[in-house]
Fold:
Amino acid sequence: MSTVMPSVLTPGDVAGVVTAVRATGPLVHCITNTVVTNVTANVLLAAGAAPAMVATPVEAGGFARVADGLLTNLGTVEGEQPDAMRVAAHAAVDAGTPWVLDPVAIGALPLRTALAAELLAVGPTIVRGNASEVAALAGGQGGRGVDSLDTPDGVRATALRLARESGAVVAVSGAVDLVTDGARVVRVRSGHPLLTRVTGVGCSLGALVAACAAVTDDRLLAATAATAWMCVAGELAAATAPTTGSFAVALLDRIDDVEPAVVGARAGLVAEPVGAAA
Structure:
């Protein structure tokens, strides 16, 4: 595992994370959106990771302790899921398991908004969401359900503040993704519009972030590599499958077979000075 935190991430750094996930097959514990459980599991399998959907409180804590990474995704907050997330998050912190908070659709919906704030206080390793979700987690307004009304540029200062105050890396999805740990800012300038037209891409990206966080101590690199992997796979999939149904299948294929060096080379990484204007 990497212990050096480079000031500027390189294509080789990203390629190294993809290679490590495939080589080690991290076990990722997902408490996630029931709408996309199958998609999320398939994305992890395509990446070479091992998915486990353990969403009952009596099992969640023990499993979070033995897993290599944890995803808590608020896409559906039903039944025992909130309690399972609470138990798993605390267990992950105790065990040193990296964990991802995906605050889906918070802001307008009070139950999940309160739960997201509660989980944020536990101390996630990485927060991943769209711009409106990140703004809402920092105390602002949310979007329209899962649709963002903001952009990564529009919440740049908010993301930096959230990263500094929470200690988590914050990854903001958008046309150009933004990832920050409060001291570094990276843009990922790759992807394709079809990624927004298939159910579960954002939710499964959170799981992929958890898998990448299991293989590197540089959490900014983990979030950046996962984002680049999904975005580059989307670009490649769209080139041969330009409609939504075929694209969904091709996306899994490209996550599976894209060369690590291609992910790094096509990621479109841009290191941005922290003080730069949004």
Summary: DSSP finds eleven helices and nine strands in the chain.
